[in-house]
Amino acid sequence: MAVLDFTSALYLGLRHQGPSLRPWPGLTTGKPAALEPAPGSAAIAGRFAVLVGCERATPLTSTLHLFWDLFGLLARDRVRIYMDEGTYAIARWGVERAALHGVPVREFQHRDATRLRALIEQDRGTKRRPIIVADGFCPSCGGPAPVTEFLQCVAPHNGYVVLDDTQALGVLGRQGGGSLRWQGVKSPDVIVGSSLAKGFGSPMAMLAGSASLIRCFEEQSATRVHCSPPSLAALHAAEHALVINSAVGGRLRRHLAQLVHRFHAGLHAIGLGVDGGLFPVQTLRPAGIAADILYQRLLRLGIRTVLMRRCRELGTCVAFLITALHGFSDIDRAVEAIGRAMALDHSTQQLTGRAS
Fold this sequence. Notes:
This protein has helices spanning 41-52, 63-74, 89-100, 113-122, 147-154, 179-183, 211-220, 223-226, 232-269, 291-300, 328-355; strands spanning 4-5, 56-60, 79-84, 105-108, 129-135, 137-138, 143-144, 160-164, 190-195, 205-209, 273-275, 281-285, 303-304, 306-309, 316-321. It is an alpha/beta fold. It has 2 domains: 4-9 and 248-355, Aspartate Aminotransferase, domain 1; 38-244, Aspartate Aminotransferase, domain 2 (3-Layer(aba) Sandwich).
């Protein structure tokens, strides 16, 4: 039997085969975006901004380029960064660049707006603008960033909230617009950076925010001068993803939610818990078995999963990444395999008990 794969983050199942995309004359124009934006990129960015609920957006090659450049720009101002301890690595690397430029950085407990507010008040005398950095949604614990509360923390100090919204894009909120749409937030003080490589299946990124901030970024961006812009193929894939999302995105998200519900019900029936809420990244909570052992047992049973670290914990867990390409039979097969893998452990415990 073929191995059933639960390791892909293409949540909506968008893969963009070549014939499905609008043709392009070449992968690149050979020109930096600062000199001449790629044909059609402004229109695609405009549609993206509307989708996520921001005034303006600009395309970049990756979130690595995006956050490296963004925090280099923010570091020119008199700011202090407050970073959620659960922030994903790529945004962290951008924060580290700001720290190298002398920007003070403090971490706060995962999604803890109360503790964050206390830290900002402690630093009030420094006269530095607070910049809060967090993931819009944490797939490990299945929880959102409290964006409204974060905004209340920075509002008296003319600060910003920077969100890495890669996970939520395409999955959460009105039309899959992500965290701001999901939480009903609209503010010029939020800066959103998202990779389109997961929910929308295009290997590029978008930075979105107020029109004035995005204009400032485009005028002063180093990566728009010294690095290649997104390829025309990636831009056309993003364009295709926006079209599909508008046409059938709702149906894909409903199917995805049904798959997750079925996964929960199947695990509940065999006495197991799972973290992740209704998000398509589901982490198991089995008792009495190490994650690496469970991972290997599932692989031998034809189920490929991901070993990942839970937020706020040192240990690893077994995660299932469910996509719209999976079917109900795939979910049933996965649950059956989990039950068999756990039964092996139960059988070993019984034999050990008899021997003693």
